[in-house]
Q: What sequence folds into this?
């Protein structure tokens, strides 16, 4: 039977609210740092429940587009609410735990091996990656490129061709988890500090300390707003 005849799905009401909020921000000329109208006002103007408005705001918060200040309202983090479709957000939420499990298993071992096998050239690349991330964070950016370069340098320093190949096969998923983590509030400087602790253990030739530092870092990476969001609430 043709897949074209699969059952139709109806958009959730809060998905429609997200669209209306995006249109409102564009039409009103709001900028990053501006406050959205209160939930009660939005619900009244849109003719929906406050619960639908609240869920729409959660979707925007999960994507790093707004900041909800408890008791203080909702503020734009970007001038455009260019949100991804909820279906894609749900798919990303569903695969993220598996990606995080794989990262912890692989990268903890890689850090341990890096502390045992690193060369002077490896240490130079690790330091260069840290310098890149530090510069990005100081500019107010997420530090994603420096983060990518740091984990690649740790992988290279482990000198394990098979583990490196495993990392390459999930590179896209790792990049997705990196972006998800780094856009959490105040996360980039914390991630940088954790990278520095991993590097210190690798430089000192301490495999157990390097593995522990990497494990702690990746468990911080796993604490993201997306995983606490329930799209069916």
A:
């Amino acid at each position: 039977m043709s897949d074209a005849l699969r059952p139709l799905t109806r958009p959730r009401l809060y998905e429609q609210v997200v669209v209306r909020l995006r249109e409102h921000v564009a039409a009103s000329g709001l900028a990053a740092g501006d406050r959205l109208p209160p939930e009660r006002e939005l619900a009244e103007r849109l003719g929906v429940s406050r619960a639908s408005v609240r869920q729409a705001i959660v979707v925007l918060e999960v994507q790093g587009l707004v900041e909800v200040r408890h008791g203080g309202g909702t503020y734009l983090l970007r001038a455009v609410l260019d949100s991804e479709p909820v279906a894609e957000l749900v798919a990303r939420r569903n695969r993220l735990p598996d990606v995080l499990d794989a990262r912890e298993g692989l990268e903890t071992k890689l850090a341990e091996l890096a502390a045992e096998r690193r060369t002077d050239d490896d240490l130079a690349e690790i330091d260069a990656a840290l310098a890149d991330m530090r510069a990005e964070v100081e500019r107010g950016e997420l530090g994603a490129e420096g983060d990518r370069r740091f984990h690649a340098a740790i992988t290279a320093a482990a000198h394990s061709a098979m583990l490196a190949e495993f990392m390459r096969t999930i590179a896209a998923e790792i990049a997705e988890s990196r972006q998800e983590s780094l856009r959490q509030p105040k996360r980039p400087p914390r991630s940088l500090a954790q990278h520095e602790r991993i590097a210190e253990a690798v430089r000192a030739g301490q495999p157990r300390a390097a593995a522990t530092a990497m494990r702690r870092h990746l468990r911080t990476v796993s604490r993201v707003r997306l995983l606490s969001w329930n799209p069916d609430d």
In short: DSSP finds ten helices and two strands in the chain. The mean pLDDT is 92. The first strand starts at residue 66 and ends at 69. Residues 44 and 82 are 24 Å apart (CA to CA).
